[in-house]
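The pair is listed for reference:
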Amino acid sequence: MRRPQSGVAWLRRSAIAGEALRDLAWDRIPCSHAALDALGADRAVEYLRLLLVRYGVLPPRDRRLADFQRWAAAKLDAIGNEGHRQLLERFLRWRLLRHLRSCSGTAAPLGHGPYQRAKQRLTVAIAFLAWLDGRGRHLGECTQHDLDQWFATGPTTRRHVITFLSWAGQQRIIRDVELPVTSTAGRRPARPDLKPGSRRSGGCCSTRPSHPATASPAASSRSTASRSARSPCCARQTPPAPATPPGSSSARTGSTCANPLPPCSGSTCATAPT
């Protein structure tokens, strides 16, 4: 600890942490994560756990995975129906926890998204079994009409029960029912001819005009004429060139002055003073 005095002050303020350290020192409780979990979800206990993990006394573990296990155990203990609780314990062990453990690791701990989805799936599965019990059926007697009624009424979060029903179908608990699938009709199909970061090809206005400093006047006029002939929209967007008034110096043939702005005297242009 970089600040031992702060640690001593923290032990004096936190009675739970001080008592837990005394129990660990006198071997009244084993030095394990399960023993600290039994002390309750207190911030002082969690801070003590982090210190023990940091200095190698306890092995590291995924915090979100442990929180989910404690939350799920309390959630299942509150279910009064013994059959529902046993069924949900199987679903929790073989589907939800198995998936979360595959997502968790020492290099990349469990993310917030899978953690929240697992909690919602278990909550909706509990609600579905209670709703089905209110209709006088258990899960093995669930029919297609029951599923259609479940998905047609209530909030959209009811679709989280699909994971539970898919698992029940794999276990041969429910049969002869069809589950809804996520629709992808509203998604725009990918363009295989386009690479990431590239512009769309084939449009008349997708071609960048050349820089006026690098393009010659003849090339610019030919490019403008070809774009105007190719597409009406380019013809509307390109303003017509102003007509040259008759009698101007640029309209006379044989004159060497190409710029109408400086005055010309004779056959040569007057050069502006620098």
